Amino acid sequence: MILEHDGKRPRLAAGVRIAPTATVCGDVHIGPGTSIGFGCVVVAESGPVRIGADCVIMDTAVLRGTRRHPLILGDRVLVGPRACLVGCTVEEEAFLATGATVFNAARISRRAEVRVNGTVHLRTVLPAEATVPIGWVAVGDAAEILPPGAHERIWEVQKPLDFPRTVFGLDRPPAGESIMPQVMPRYAALLRRHLADRTVPEDHQEGGMA
Question: Among 34, 133, 118, 136, which residue's Cα sits nearest to residue 82?
Fold first, then answer.
C-alpha cells in the first residue's frame, strides 16, 4: 500500500519492488532495484525516509523517520525480518540481521554488522566493519559493544545520551515520576494525522508493486 501523508507521496525509482502487504507512507524516497518485503512498514512519521539503491528490506521490518532524525539508508544495505530502525543513518553495505534494533540519531558505518537481536542505542556510532554479536548492545560514541547482561555499564553510558531529550525533546523527569503524561497525548495527536492519509492510485505510482 502506497499512502500520501501530510501532502507528500512516496517516490519510487525504477525497478523498486513493494510487496502487496507492505506499507510505504509519506515522504519516502526509495532507490532503484530496492525490494520492500511482505508486511514491512516504511513511514515518514514526521520526518523523511531515504533508502538507497539495491537494498533488501525483508518481511515485517519497520523503518520510521522522525522530525528530529530522518531515516537514511545507503546503497546495498540488508535489513532483516523484524528489524526496527527509527531515525538513524545506515551507511553502504551494512548488514542488519533478524530482530536488529537501531535507535534515534544512531549511525551504522559502512559494512558494519548488527547480528540477530542486536541493539544499537540512540546517538551511538558503530564504526565501519564493526560487529554487534547476537543479542549484544552497542552504546556510545564511539560505541562500546556489550553483552546484554552488562546492565549497569549499558546504563552508565546510555544515561548521558539522554533518551527523553533526544527522542521527545523533554527533560528526564525526577526520580519516581513519569514522562508518559506529557509524551503520550502529544504523540497520539501526531499519529492521528494519519487519519487524513490517502491511498496513492497505481497509475500515479512510480516503480512497482510485486
Answer: 118
